[in-house]
């Protein structure tokens, strides 16, 4: 185990009178400990540093000297360091009988006394004890540096996401905030920001609602999630979104609220601006309609039809724009999470003997995985999630999920199913289809707090011509019908927009229907919603039928894969240094030899000089030369080289058809092993 840095460490000796320095140096040399002799106290202090294992100094050298410089050095040691001092005293001059010697312990800290003339064994034993103590300090430094590095990377991810971190001690109500958090409340980066300051900064009309939310979290343990207005010191009004969870001790007692905050002022203003534009547009349309009605009571049906078409077009354009935005954000955040997850996963392997470090790493991993789950939902809405499409018997899928659906809705809800006598086989991803069905059933349950019946139906439908977004052809229709509150026309129009929810804060992400909508479009189908207040809701998921009645199976990550064992020589290409470093570390941890390149051009230069590679792993989105262009160029040099393309998107851009493996970001070490095994087995 490496406990001392890869450089020489030595003892530092200052014994200016007689031959004590030469004798001590010779004895240490025989014990295998190198040493350096300082001729005077100034050189002795100048020679102190992290490479000094311990210091040997005579009592008389300290008694008559100005020790302020030495005391200052001792006080300025880093937190992990407590340099051992061995004081050589005269016989009878030990700390028990010599108050002056005892005071040196207070001044120097970590002190051992050896009375002269000393026995060789005694001196060497004390020296080795000091060296062992110093080694433990070096070990502590390595652990502290590893934890600091993990914390810095997590902080980088928070800052990249413009999230401010904070903690509230529930015993003292002491508030600890990051600089980003303070900035969100209009405070200076270095200014003190107490809990009372926070309450004072909240808009008076929102303060009671905020305090009610905190009280609910403390009483029930529900996650704290709220949006409210803040008033900055300059009088301007801003919006903040706050999310937090309770941190408890081993007995379950709530100790802290730990969470993040973000500035959503631009989003709120954009929404308000959009609402204003919609109102203006609606006013203009109404005015124009009235004019046409007065002048031409009959071109009316045509005007109404045109308005509906324009509204549908605006909605489609808005949803497409939101999809592109959320997909891009999810892609970039996937890249950030790749660096965080990869490094935390490797760090966890090296912190198994430190329970606190294990807990801290696991907490960071859980937070990062929640972020990865959120990006997957965003990618689902943007139709860029990674799907494993194959024939799925939707009737069997409903039968297999009946017990789960019943457990999910509770005893006050009855679930009735209506399934066709012949199989209805869809071309879909079974896991995503199960998740979509469960989301629809849970939404239906939430719409019936007093109980009721949920009808789950499956039918087949043949469409002769294109209608709306659906092309002509055969479809399977999975419908979920409830008897709940229902939705008005305005709510129904926004139902599939991401983050829109009719549920109260903390009881839904607003991504359920948007994810199902994205899944349906990605599979070539559609999500149709029909509802009216007090009349319940009908949700229909239309998915193209499959002509293939052979139901396939997917390969799980736990299944062993042969044909790719043994260390490989791998060329890894990624323009993001953080992701490249994380991926290289994961591959080297698996025993592979890795050569790193940060652009497609650099990778080609390496391949031209050295073709001894078993595999190329490359990012797709890179400036100058994309991963797809690199694949074409690399195959010209090495036609049979296996290649994995890593990307935060589920699909490569249209028109890009490459014989390569796919690796979705962020990926774990196990997923990396699985995809490597697949591509290497095929070559």
TrEMBL record:
Annotated catalysed reactions: ATP + protein L-histidine = ADP + protein N-phospho-L-histidine
Residue positions, PTM 4-aspartylphosphate: 619
Residue intervals of the Response regulatory domain: 569-680
PAS domain: residues covered: 150-221
This enzyme's EC code(s): 2.7.13.3
Domain of life: Bacteria
SMART domains (UniProt xref): HATPase_c, HisKA, PAC, REC
PAC domain ranges (all copies): 224-276
UniProt keywords, alphabetically: Phosphoprotein
Alphabetized InterPro entries for the sequence: CheY-like_superfamily, HATPase_C_sf, HATPase_dom, His_kinase_dom, HisK_dim/P_dom, HisK_dim/P_sf, PAC, PAS
NCBIfam families given in the database record: sensory_box
PANTHER family per record: SENSOR HISTIDINE KINASE, TWO-COMPONENT SENSOR PPRA
The protein's name: histidine kinase
Organism: Shinella curvata
């Amino acid at each position: 185990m490496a406990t001392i840095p890869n450089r020489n460490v030595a003892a530092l000796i200052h014994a200016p009178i007689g031959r004590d320095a030469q004798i001590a140096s010779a004895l240490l040399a025989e014990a295998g400990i190198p040493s350096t002799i300082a001729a005077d106290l100034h050189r002795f202090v100048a020679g102190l540093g992290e490479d000094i294992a311990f210091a040997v100094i005579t009592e008389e050298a300290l008694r008559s000297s100005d020790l302020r410089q030495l005391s200052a050095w001792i006080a300025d040691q880093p937190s992990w360091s407590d340099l051992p001092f061995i004081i050589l005293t005269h016989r009878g001059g030990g700390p028990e009988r010599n108050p002056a010697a005892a005071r040196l312990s207070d001044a120097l800290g970590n002190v051992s006394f050896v009375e002269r003339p000393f026995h060789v064994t005694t001196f060497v034993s004390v020296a080795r004890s000091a060296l062992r103590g110093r080694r433990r300090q070096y070990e502590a430094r390595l652990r502290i540096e590893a934890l600091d590095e993990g914390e810095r990377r997590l902080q980088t991810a928070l800052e990249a996401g413009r999230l401010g971190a904070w903690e509230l001690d529930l015993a003292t109500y002491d508030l600890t905030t990051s600089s980003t958090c303070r900035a969100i409340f209009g405070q200076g980066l270095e200014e003190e920001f107490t809990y009372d300051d926070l309450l004072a900064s909240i808009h008076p009309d929102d303060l009671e609602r905020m305090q009610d939310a905190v009280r609910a979290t403390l009483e029930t343990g529900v996650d704290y999630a709220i949006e409210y207005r803040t008033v900055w010191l300059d009088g301007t009004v801003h919006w903040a979104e706050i999310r937090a969870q309770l941190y408890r001790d081993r007995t379950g007692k709530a100790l802290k609220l730990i969470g993040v905050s973000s500035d959503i002022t631009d989003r709120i203003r954009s929404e308000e601006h959009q609402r204003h534009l919609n109102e203006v547009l609606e006013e203009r349309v109404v005015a124009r309609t009235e004019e046409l009605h007065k002048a031409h009571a009959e071109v009316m049906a045509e005007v109404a039809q045109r308005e509906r078409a324009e509204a549908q077009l605006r909605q489609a354009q808005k949803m497409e724009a939101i999809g592109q935005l959320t997909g891009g954000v999810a892609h970039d955040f996937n890249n950030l999470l790749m660096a965080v997850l990869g490094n935390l996963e490797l760090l966890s392997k090296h912190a198994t003997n430190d329970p606190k470090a294990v807990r801290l790493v696991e907490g960071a991993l859980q937070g990062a995985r929640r972020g990865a789950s959120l990006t997957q939902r965003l990618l689902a809405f943007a139709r860029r999630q990674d799907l494993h499409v194959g024939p799925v018997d939707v009737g069997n899928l409903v039968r297999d999920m009946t017990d789960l659906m019943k457990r999910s809705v509770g005893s006050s809800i009855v679930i009735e199913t209506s399934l066709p006598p012949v199989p209805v086989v869809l071309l879909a991803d079974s896991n995503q289809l199960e998740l979509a069905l469960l989301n629809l059933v849970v939404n239906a349950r939430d719409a019936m707090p007093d109980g009721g019946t949920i009808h789950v139906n499956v039918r087949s439908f043949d469409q002769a011509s294109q209608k709306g977004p659906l092309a002509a052809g055969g479809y399977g229709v999975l419908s979920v019908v409830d008897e709940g509150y229902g939705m008005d026309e305005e709510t129904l129009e926004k139902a599939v927009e991401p983050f829109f929810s009719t549920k109260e804060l903390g009881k839904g992400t607003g991504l359920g229907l948007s994810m199902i909508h994205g899944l349906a479009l990605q599979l070539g189908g559609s999500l149709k919603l029909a509802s009216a207040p007090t009349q319940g809701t009908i949700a229909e998921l239309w998915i193209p039928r499959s002509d293939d009645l052979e139901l396939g199976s997917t390969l799980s990550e736990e299944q062993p894969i042969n044909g790719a064992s043994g260390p490989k020589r791998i060329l890894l290409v990624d323009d993001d240094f953080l992701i490249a470093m994380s991926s290289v570390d994961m591959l080297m941890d698996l025993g592979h030899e890795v050569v790193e390149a940060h652009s497609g051009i650099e990778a080609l230069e390496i391949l031209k000089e050295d073709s001894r590679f078993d595999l190329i792993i490359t990012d797709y989105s890179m400036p100058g030369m994309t991963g797809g262009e690199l694949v074409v160029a690399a195959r010209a040099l090495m036609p049979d080289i296996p290649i994995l393309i890593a990307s935060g998107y589920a699909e490569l851009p249209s028109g890009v058809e490459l014989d390569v493996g796919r690796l979705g970001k962020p990926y774990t070490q196990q997923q990396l092993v699985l995809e490597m095994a697949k591509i290497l087995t095929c070559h």
